[in-house]
Amino acid sequence: MGLILFHVSRPCTSSPAVMLYLVRTSILASATRNLIVMIGGPNYKLPLGRIDSLVSQATSVEGKLARVNDTKIPKSRLQRPRNVCISWSGHNIGFVHCKEFANRIFAKPDPTMNPKLVAIDSEGSFLDVITPGTFDNMLFKNLMNGLGVLGSVQLLLSDPRTRPFVEKYAKDNLAFSADFARAMEKLNVYKVKVDNQGEVRRRCDAPNTSRK
Ligand code: HEM
C-alpha cells in the first residue's frame, strides 16, 4: 500500500484516455489515504499531480531497501531513526505470508520472539497480531512484548537508536499518528520531477520510450 502511494498521481492533460487514467491513479492514492482514516489512522494532505521518472531499473533498487530478515538496521538509515520506525509502522495493518517469518519460528526460534508467537503454525499471520484491522500504535506495544512478526520490525526495539521511538509511540498514539501523517506528506512531495525530468506514462509499469 505504501509503495502504491509513490506512483499514483499524475498531472492533467487534454487526452481523454490519459484523463481516465489520471482519475484511476488519483483514486488509488486517495483510497489509500481514506482507508487509513477509516480504520482509525491520521488524515494527511495529499497533493496530486506527480509525474513518473524516465528510467526504471530493478538493479537501481537492490541494496537500498530494507529486508524483512535483516539482522541489523543499516548504519546509513540510522541517521534518521525516527524515519526507520515510521516506515516500518505501515505494517500495523494487513497480512504476511509464513515464508517471510519462517526463519524466526522453525529450527532455532528467534529468542526475541514471544513463545506464544513462535507457536504460530499456519500459512501466515496478521502483521499486528492484536489489532490487525485498526491503524494504531499497537504494533509498537507488540514489539515491547516480543510480538513483532517480522524480524526487521522487532529489531526496532533491540537497537538503542530506534528503541526510544518505539517506547514513545507505544505510549502515545497521538504522537505516532502525527509523525506518520507528517512522514506521508513529506514522502508525497519528495523529489517531485518537473518539466522534462519526467513524463506521464501510458502504462504505469514502464517508461514510454521502452514501449514505442
Ligand atoms: C523496505 C520497505 C518494506 C518492505 C521490505 C516491506 C515488506 C513487506 C512484506 C514482506 C509484506 C508481507 C507480504 C506478504 O506476505 O504477502 C508486507 C506487507 C505490507 N506492507 Fe510492507 N514493506 C515495506 C514498506 C512498507 C511501507 C512503507 C508501508 C506503508 C507505509 C507498508 C505497508 C504494508 C502493508 C499495509 C502490508 C500488508 C498487505 C496485505 O495485507 O496484503 N510496507 N510488507
Automatic annotation (TrEMBL):
<dbReference type="GO" id="GO:0046872">
    <property type="term" value="F:metal ion binding"/>
</dbReference>
<feature type="domain" description="Plant heme peroxidase family profile">
    <location>
        <begin position="25"/>
        <end position="208"/>
    </location>
</feature>
<keyword id="KW-0479">Metal-binding</keyword>
<keyword id="KW-0408">Iron</keyword>
<feature type="binding site">
    <location>
        <position position="136"/>
    </location>
    <ligand>
        <name>Ca(2+)</name>
    </ligand>
</feature>
<feature type="binding site">
    <location>
        <position position="128"/>
    </location>
    <ligand>
        <name>Ca(2+)</name>
    </ligand>
</feature>
<keyword id="KW-0575">Peroxidase</keyword>
<dbReference type="InterPro" id="IPR000823">
    <property type="entry name" value="Peroxidase_pln"/>
</dbReference>
<dbReference type="GO" id="GO:0140825">
    <property type="term" value="F:lactoperoxidase activity"/>
</dbReference>
<feature type="binding site">
    <location>
        <position position="131"/>
    </location>
    <ligand>
        <name>Ca(2+)</name>
    </ligand>
</feature>
<dbReference type="GO" id="GO:0020037">
    <property type="term" value="F:heme binding"/>
</dbReference>
<dbReference type="InterPro" id="IPR010255">
    <property type="entry name" value="Haem_peroxidase_sf"/>
</dbReference>
<dbReference type="GO" id="GO:0006979">
    <property type="term" value="P:response to oxidative stress"/>
</dbReference>
<keyword id="KW-0560">Oxidoreductase</keyword>
<dbReference type="InterPro" id="IPR002016">
    <property type="entry name" value="Haem_peroxidase"/>
</dbReference>
<comment type="similarity">
    <text>Belongs to the peroxidase family.</text>
</comment>
<feature type="binding site" description="axial binding residue">
    <location>
        <position position="91"/>
    </location>
    <ligand>
        <name>heme b</name>
    </ligand>
</feature>
<keyword id="KW-0349">Heme</keyword>
<protein>
    <recommendedName>
        <fullName>peroxidase</fullName>
        <ecNumber>1.11.1.7</ecNumber>
    </recommendedName>
</protein>
<dbReference type="Pfam" id="PF00141">
    <property type="entry name" value="peroxidase"/>
</dbReference>
<keyword id="KW-0106">Calcium</keyword>
